[in-house]
Amino acid sequence: MDVSSSSWLAIAIALAAANLPFINERLFGIIPLKSAPGAPPNKSGWLRVFELLVLYFVVGGIAYLLESRIGNVFVQVKEFYMITVPLFVVLAFPGFVLRYLRKRKH
Q1: What span, in angstroms and rounded, lies between the C-alpha atoms of 100 and 85?
Q2: Any transmembrane segments, and where (predicted)?
Q3: Against a cut of 0.85, is the pTM above it?
């Protein structure tokens, strides 16, 4: 895999992972959450933020593995994380809009 395709793959994985907490009511898209009898399951906002944080590190690990396959792995300093954390949150914007800002028909 060359540099360009691995970069686009990392971006696509980041986009999918950033929107995962907002498009379903399961934890990490796999684990069903318990709710009150008769009530639909509902993840809290804090659980979605925690899930987003964990998925950020998962995507970071995948990107690190992709980078190590194509050559030298660059040392990341705090500026790298100061850019990638807000970028990951921006990638989550479509899921956030669909979950919280879209008007639903009754």
Answers
A1: 21
A2: 6-24, 45-65, 80-101
A3: no
Residue 83 and residue 87: Cα distance in Å, rounded? 6
Please, are residues 50 and 5 in contact by the beta-carbon 8 Å criterion?
no
User: How distant is the alpha carbon of residue 15 from its chain centre?
Assistant: 7
Q: How many CA atoms lie within 13 A of 16 on its CB side?
A: 10
Contact assessment for residue 75 and residue 3, using Cβ atoms and an 8 Å cutoff: no
The string of pLDDT tens digits covering residues 6-38 is 889 999 999 999 999 988 887 787 777 776 666
The amino acid present at 101, given as its one-letter code, is L
Nearest to 15 by CA among 62, 47, 50: 62
